[in-house]
Amino acid sequence: MRAGTPAIVTGEARYSGDCRKEGMLFARVARSPHSRALITAVSASEALALPGAAAVLIASDIPGENLIGMTGKKHQPVMAETDTRFMGEAVAVVAAETRAVAMEAARSVRVEYEPLPAVHSVEESMAPEAPRLGPEGNVAWQGRVTRGDFERAAREADVVLTGVYRTPPVDHAYIETESVLAEPEVGGMRVWSSSKNVHLDQREIARVLGWPKERIRVTAPTIGGNFGGKPDLPQLCMAALLCERTGRPVLLEMSREESLQVSTKRHPVVFHMTHCADRRGRLLGVKMEAYADAGAYLDYTVPVMQRIVIHGAGPYRVENVLLEGWGYYTNNPLSGAMRGFGVPQVTFACERQMDRLADALGLDPIDIRIMNALQTGDRTATGQVLESPVGLGEALNKARELIPAEEWTGSQEDTSHTGWGVACFHYGNGLTAMPNRGTAVVRLLEGGRIQLAIGSPDVGQGSNLALGQLAAEALGLEVSHVEVLSADTSLTPDSGSSSGTRVTYVVGNAVVSAARSFGEELAQRAAAVLGTDRAALSLELSAGRPVLRSDNFEFGLAELYEELGDQERPLEVTGTFDPPTTSLDPATGQGAPYGAYTFGVQLAKVSVDHYTGKVGVERIVSLLDVGTVVNPLLLRGQVEGGCAMGIGYALLEEIELQGGRVVNDNFDRYLLPTAVDVCDVTLVIIGAADSTGPYGAKGIGEPATIPTAAAIANAVSRAAQIDVRQLPLSLERVSAALAEREEGGFR
Amino acid sequence: MLYRVRLIVNGQQVRLEVPVETTLAELLRDHLGLLGTKIGCGKGECGACTVLLDGEAIYSCLVLSCSVDGRTVTTIEGLGGREALDPVQQSFLEAGAVQCGYCTSGMIMSAKAFLDSEPDPSVEAIRAALSGNLCRCTGYATVIEAVALAAERIRTLRSTESADG
Ligand code: FES
Ligand code: FES
Fold first, then answer.
1. Structural domains for chain A
2. What residues of chain B lie within 8 A of the CB of A173, using their CB?
3. pTM, 2 dp
């Protein structure tokens, strides 16, 4: 079921940092030691004079535009020219014969700074006296989703419950740090990037070099994890700039310390929530104000904030919503996309509110969710009618059955408390409220081989295998008959990024469409060659190999390929899919932002040590409506990995910033879950085929991690009888809450 | 300053001169081209650089090359090629324990050393043995299953060998 990884277990797989080329230079970035400063002078002469130094580049050396960005808005420089806006921002980049010389040269670049007052929190950024940080002021994004009349709902409600919730900045912490290799190629350049979107990389490099993009070929080698993070666009472009300048291959690696300091983080957000309900627990209205730290440049703040407001009422039927969000610029490291695009944060806030509401009304946490869960045919907060089957209610009912009542209640002993918590989520598949076409190409190659080509990289989650399976299914063949090639701008079409849980759903639909047309094309060509009727031929397996078969003969694909004229080779068919979405009304946020939604419920069982505050996660049950399952083993891998990441988010992880400096800049102090911190995860698949997904499939990449921290926070709150409002649930935070409870401060 | 080092790496004698600050991980990757050994933190925290030194699992990013002069090193490349996978490699593949694979070499080397000393481990013992290797993708469950599977496989191999012998 798992294919294509023997090269990994033998150590032969090559990641971008493993690229070694004849005459290769090593590069290193000179970075700003200030969070905010004017650059008054830069001198490269000392660095260049070092024996073995090959080149030093600064912003003014950039031949094209010094502007890059992950989305349509380009406002981050590759290297700072006049001022730096976050600590670690690139100011110069050097290339040298050895790593050691590169390091020394980077240290020898003389930059004079005039430090400026810096802003390190949303509160500071909002203050009237705050320095102006962004092109249009300090608000990077603001927007809302509103429907019905929240104020009236609040007046008519039996309970109005407010709460403030905080989530920390965290890092993707892929075990492979960012590395890029750029090498000259006849007529242009080849770049190896561990990216989620090689076609975006190509466009960004082209703009920065001032080259036509056709001269640049970007390929993703094996990728050591992504989770929404890589590439680091400045790094990508700096490697290309050095390659252009020196005419030699250049490897630019990042140390873990650099990666933790300068790579993008999951947005830290403060939520002000108000939930209104009637006496029975039926939700009447939800209001949210979400304030996020965007960091120094825009990066992915727009789509993250859009997701936060769209998902702000949770997966519940609520007629009256007022969901507002703001992203503020600061001089902290950039916030970007990380597995869930804002939804892990908003799920924590919403799901704590649901539990507190249940408590306030004397209801069971599962019951109140069952009462309010979105069902097929309901409208979401953006007014989108859910036409495909919604498995949320079924998942909640199943959750109720799985946990015996006496266990569900939990227990409070002197030294240790245990209990279960629940959290629900929904997650729109694909990019938000915009066209995001997926494209796939299927080719017939020499020897009758069938190749599926897609631009979206396999970032380690196994998308090449899943997409190969979809193609095989559409062709009526086995997955072993489809060679999958991904992420090469010269050989694969632009299928968009491997992010936003769009690969299975969006690209998968394109794959199925391409494969079907390809099968038809094969049959027609064969019919023409053989002078038979198309209807008499079908693509089938014969003795384990694909053939076109009629009643009385078989025609092999290798033979068909031989019969094609030179012009026709390789025979190639393209398929596309653009999910049925609309833009959102700018005033109300109403519309249909996604073609499909993944739904789910997670249960977490925790133990809380009364004295140390240590939380152990003992078991997780994940009940998911992902439509049709494409590959059970890959699904399991996503869910278990997502739960582990969620355990880290709930209990361990927080980027600690002091004046914009990441204090915990390696894994000795930025703690990730290890094999002893995780628990058994039971996966329960719920629901029916989606009406728009490929064979009814929906995505799981991000949903896998979205509810975990919320479920754990609810479990800890119930078990220890404390009221969790902030992540992570560190020892200090939990023991302080327990101490406060002892003093009678609770509720 | 260059330092002369002699090692036996994956069964081969190697002699080379490296700058004195060169770690074993750098020696393997940059001087010997054994790029299957990864560097994830450079600080003895992630385990991606795990190799066997005289049969014992160590973080090669923490070891200076000059301090291991004369000793025997096994890397992932020294286990088995594609045609003859080691039982641990085989089990990682079969159990679905590989996603991005960046942690995998280190995991396999840790598992290898562990199973040499503990042929019939409990799940808890496997967990503990792997706790020095970080994986951001899998959530560890399939990795733990892979190690249990490998243990079983090795035991079966040994019992057939001894039956044969
Ligand atoms: S690279 Fe050696 S332990 Fe992380
Ligand atoms: S498989 Fe990606 S880090 Fe382990």
1. 24-116+178-253 (3.90.1170.50), 269-431+585-744 (3.30.365.10), 438-577 (3.30.365.10)
2. 136
3. 0.97
